[in-house]
Amino acid sequence: MGANTSSLVSEDIEEMARESNLSPREIKRLYKRFQKLDRNQSGSLEADELTMIPELAMNPLFPRIVQIFESVNFREFVKLLSVFSESASEEAKRDFVFRFFDIDQDGFVSSTDLIEILLMLCGSNLTQGELEEISQLIIRDADMDKDGMVSYDDFCACDSLGTISQLCQISLA
Amino acid sequence: MGALFVGAPALCATACRAPRRTHCSVARMCDVKHDAAGTKAVVVLGDLHLHPEAPRMAPFHTARQEILRALADLGVQQSDAFLVSVGDLGAYGIAGTSASFELARDFLRSFGLSYSVVTGNHDLEGLDEFKTDQENLDAWGRVFGPDTDTLTTLTEGLPVFRREIPGSDIVLLGMSTVRFREARGSSHEVYIDDEQLSWFDAQLAKCEMEGKRAFVFTHAPPMGAGLRSLQSVHVKNMCAWLNHSSGRRRRRIFLQKVKQHPCLRLWASGHFHLSHEFEDSVTLVEGRACFLQCGVIGPESSRDGYRQTRIILTDPSLGDSMKMYSVNHHDGGSLRLDASVVGQDSTAVSFALEHYPHDHVGKESWFRTFTPRPDDGCVLEPVQGEDVAAARADKVCWWHTSSGSVLGVHDGMVIEYDEETLAPVGLVMTAEELAGRDVFWISEADALVINPPAEGLSVEVLHPNADGTFARQYQLNKRYRIETKRREQLARQWLTTHRKELEA
């Protein structure tokens, strides 16, 4: 299957099912949804097409979600969403959430990353001082090796109860 | 069929505007004698915003008496008069609640006339009482359904109304906004969904087939109605027109229906809280469809000091003509003929009053829309070759972008206009943001360049949004704002708790 999503053959479905944690039925359902969203039939999702999902358009983290999902083709779309499947591993879910917070993609969740997320969640009503204080307190709690940033290992250590795995789950059936 | 605008007799205009203390004398000077037999009237109530406190209800009870007296002056039997409320029933703070619906229902019933109602944006604002827009709408339907058939099987479960006026060729059609919490942009956009649009199509087709005239009622007007007086806040927040924030196709669809259906002869709306005093508060589109802006009764709701109600009068002896009156509640209920629409072979609108200039009161509180015309003072000053044009904030200037958007500098603001109707869509820069700066349009880059107000500051470049538009979303959905506020409070609480832990 190329960029164009005008058809989805059974070989594609089977291959994607092997690569993801999704069943062929779930993939077929996602494909129908993807085709509806891809209004210009370009084979990939653009920001304005993503805003057509009301639940997403109202999500405070929408700008970050768009950064991750924008321009994805169907194969990438399946891969991204498979993380939210019940059968996806705890590690895959943690990895996705960590990458979600690591906005500048430098391998660490820094104060700058957290401030950006806080701004999306709380608007510009918190003062710069409050934003910095909150981000520093979060890092102080999570930063096991005390290097001022949250590494992937720090992040996993914070999630010893598996909370991320429980929250990072949506029904794709 | 062409439109012909005829100047009104100055004597009548002067007489109509003169303050009056007695009832009906001025109305009679304005030639409002009608053959009582067969005369039908539709009373259109603008945004009510009722509050149960007796002193705040008093002006509405007075207004009701004034309206009923006006109908009597016009020779209309009560059984031949129909009442339509275009929504926004409850006062700010109680809007959208069950109590506000019941209060409005009792008020509407008190006229003793057959009535219909549509929702306005504030009628779905009962955020504390209802979780979803549908729950809110259902509560509205439970209150008004028994009287008006709205949201019942008779209206296909839709928040609409269809009412045929007996003994006439007139059908009243109303459609409601159905989205507040789920609005993509401003919660105050008046949004008509696809189900209602399909119903509307079917109703208009039926009117065409049966040779009837359709009078349409919605809370906000459709884009392209030609109404040129509106509050700037509605442009800034992109909630002036029906489906304003829902993309080009959805906001243009209404005018397309006007063009497609010659039977559509009148469209009345409220929403702006502005009076009937302005030029273009009555307009004619396609030479036959009359658009009416309806004012408000409540002193707290009026934005320009005038308090008015519309009466549309039809008289079978005059063919398919109609007359538009104002009941001036700010002037003891005086009745005034505003305009006549004469149908038959050619359609003419005769304005029966000299309109006040747009800036006669509180100019800062509203916005007058402009359409590019050779005589509107448009200035395009080439700066560097043909691709660059510049304007100062105090000039009027227009640009057509390659993506089809139309931008204009007007009244010190940068405004985006719809390229098809040239109605204002939204603000790109406010007057405060633009003050003292120059604007350059770089057509090769499809970008606006704003000069800094002082030396040493950097030049600002405004690029189009992802969909090719330039208008900025200044107001977010209300539920979104409330939830953001809640998260802000949680963050502050979390901070306080952690500070205490640190201190301990």
Automatic annotation (TrEMBL), chain A:
Boundaries of every EF-hand domain copy: 25-60, 89-124, 130-165
Gene3D superfamilies for this protein: EF-hand
Q: Which Pfam family, just one, is annotated for this protein?
A: EF-hand_7
Q: Which InterPro entries match?
A: EF-hand-dom_pair, EF_Hand_1_Ca_BS, EF_hand_dom
**Its Gene Ontology molecular function terms?**
calcium ion binding
Listed transmembrane segments: none
Q: SUPFAM superfamilies, alphabetically?
A: EF-hand (SSF47473)
Per UniProt, the keywords (alphabetical) are: Calcium, Metal-binding, Repeat
Q: Which PANTHER family match?
A: PROTEIN PHOSPATASE 3 REGULATORY SUBUNIT B ALPHA ISOFORM TYPE 1
Q: What is this protein called?
A: Calcineurin subunit B
- Which organism is this entry from? Porphyridium purpureum
From TrEMBL, chain B:
Matching InterPro entries, A to Z?
Calcineurin-like_PHP, Metallo-depent_PP-like, STPP_CPPED1
Gene3D superfamilies (alphabetical): 3.60.21.10
Superkingdom is Eukaryota
Q: What Pfam families does this protein map onto?
A: Metallophos (PF00149)
Give start-end ranges for the coiled-coil region(s).
none
List residues of the Calcineurin-like phosphoesterase domain: 42-273
Q: What is this protein called?
A: Calcineurin-like phosphoesterase domain-containing protein
Say which species the protein is native to. Porphyridium purpureum
Q: Kindly list the organism's lineage.
A: Eukaryota, Rhodophyta, Bangiophyceae, Porphyridiales, Porphyridiaceae
